[in-house]
Amino acid sequence: MTELTLRRSELDRARVLRLLQDYGVYAGVAVLILVNVVLTPNFVSGENFRTQAVQVAPVMIVALGMALAIGSQGIDLSVGSVMALSTSLLSLYLGYGPWIAVLVAVIGGMVIGLANGSLIAFIGVQPIVATLALMVAGRGLALVLLPQLKDVRDPGMATLGSGSVLGIPYLVLIAVALAIAVAFVVRRTTFGRQLLAIGDSRPAAQLAGLPVRRVLIIVYVVSGALAAVAGVIATARLTASDPTSLGTLMELSAITAVVVGGTPLSGGRVRIGGTVAGAVLIQLLTATLIKHDLPPSWTQIAQAVVIVAAVYAARERGKR
């Protein structure tokens, strides 16, 4: 084999890996849809599409905040616990009205995010350690505030959980609106450019005079707020507050959606469109396994395989 042939082979491999990282998530969604159309009874129905969209909304919202954290060369493992804390606060303050309860729940998520960001930006704790600590503390606080499941009986929350506009559920509209807003911030604002610069090289960003600490704190506050919003809409959909189980393993789903969507764990890049597609991929994968009577544990195994494949593709691309 000549040197020219070897070089062409390497170029072809690099091109395939680049296409896999950039567009693999969209191809995966298309393949899963095709498989379900052929093999899954009643998959092509308005009710099924509505169900899938409603179920993916919380994952999508949490993944948006996770994408910002990963883009800054960090990670947020506390998102599931923030969802649990938000459902506890929502239930406790619902007597003051749904809007007050939602506001308190979101503020609770922001406080957790502020704690994460402060530990990372000012004390220098590694993101995985800081957010792991808040993951444990947040879930514990949620259970202290609300030790057991509690029904949520409020007309406003019922409307949020089951209402729609032109057949599109409110939960889906909220998720889409937040995705558009986050995409705009990342692509079109100074904050977004600063975030990507910090993720690409934090020392270089500091030397350039960028407000590294402020940006990192905002990133984790936003991540906490988005996780709290996800907890609120999940509670509205389920009509119950359950801090014991709500948000469990949500960090895994969010990280999977972000990484599969093309945002590298090394930071410096955020792909919101890919993150949304990644969340849809995870939901379709879960639904496919459930509809074909496979146990839930297979979903976790499948997610792990998808993560390894996505990280491998990103690693191979980074070598070139």
Written overview of the protein:
The protein is mainly alpha-helical and 320 residues long. The protein has a single domain, classed as ABC transporter involved in vitamin B12 uptake, BtuC, CATH 1.10.3470. The protein is 78% helix and 2% strand. It contains 13 helices and four strands. The protein has helices spanning 3-39, 46-71, 79-93, 98-123, 127-145, 155-162, 170-188, 190-200, 202-207, 212-238, 250-260, 272-291, 296-318, and strands at 150-151, 164-165, 168-169, 240-241. A two-stranded antiparallel sheet has the order 1-4. Mean pLDDT is 87; it is low at 316-320. The chain crosses the membrane at residues 23-44, 56-75, 95-115, 127-146, 166-186, 215-234, 296-314. One of its GO terms (molecular function) is transmembrane transporter activity. It is a multi-pass membrane protein.
As laid out across the biggest beta sheet, the strand order is 1-4
Mean pLDDT: 87
CATH architecture: Orthogonal Bundle
Percent in helix: over 70%
Class of secondary structure makeup? mainly alpha
Fraction of residues in β-strands = under 5%
Helix and strand sequence: HHHHHEHEEHHHHEHHH
Overall spatial form: globular
Domains counted in the coordinates: how many? 1
State the CATH topology. ABC transporter involved in vitamin B12 uptake, BtuC
Tally the helices: 13
Which runs of at least 5 residues are low in confidence (pLDDT < 50)?
316-320
How does the major sheet shape up?
2 strands, antiparallel
CATH class: Mainly Alpha
- Kindly provide the radius of gyration, computed on alpha-carbon positions and rounded to a whole number of angstroms: 20 Å
